[in-house]
């Protein structure tokens, strides 16, 4: 039997000694105030057992990790329509790159880059009467945690500085791939990215991707096929222009955010979340990447 707690303790001792912890995301002013020394991991097994180390219960802005959650909500409602408006191919470019969007006439490469997630946000704005409230309730329900909420200061900070996202949304609108107003869609998008969750809460949210679409309450939020497809998209597109590196080094479907979080899953085995705010040049958590590589090496558990 694997001694998960000893492995997490080993990882914590090793990575927290690193002197180069990466760089905090400063282009969103609220994120620049985070302590760069924070580090936590939470592991949730399909069996129900949980293991953690460090700052695993401290909330942080999940940012782009939210794209997986909005995608899962949209797929559960209108999956067939999604793939007419967004592709499922790796972009090979940074998360906020716009050149491919123009080249491919307004069809984002995948739903986990910013432009693709904005299309998913547009779908939810069309489908839901109160998108922000209903999406928050969805996340609270799949985690069983009603305390999860938006960080309104982060949402406002993104609204005031998100010029690239305004550009992407307007470009999508010019190609008729946005049905609602740019302001309405981005208001929802900035709020979804501002969700504040801990590693413990994130591991519970990602439990359904490890559990064939069943959430913690054993309720089917996705079909087995939908859960499989989301895992596939995470593996190939979850880390932007570093997706290949993450698959090579870690070997898990996962998603990163510029808040320093990474959430990942191993189908039929576990979900795991790590938080270390400092980022590498690709915008992924520097120590988080190292921690997950060490985790799959020490446990000998990955999809490969």
Automatic annotation (TrEMBL):
Residues engaged in binding substrate: 64, 114, 158, 165, 189, 240, 258
GO MF term set: glutaminase activity
SUPFAM superfamilies: beta-lactamase/transpeptidase-like (SSF56601)
E.C. designation(s): 3.5.1.2
The keyword Acetylation belongs to this UniProt entry's keyword annotation: yes
Pfam families xref list: Glutaminase (PF04960)
Keywords: Acetylation, Hydrolase
GO biological process, one term: L-glutamine catabolic process
rRNA-binding is among the record's keywords: no
Subunit organization: Homotetramer.
Family to which the UniProt record says this protein belongs: Belongs to the glutaminase family.
Name of the molecule in the record: Glutaminase
Lineage: Bacteria, Pseudomonadati, Bacteroidota, Flavobacteriia, Flavobacteriales
Protein encoded by which gene: glsA
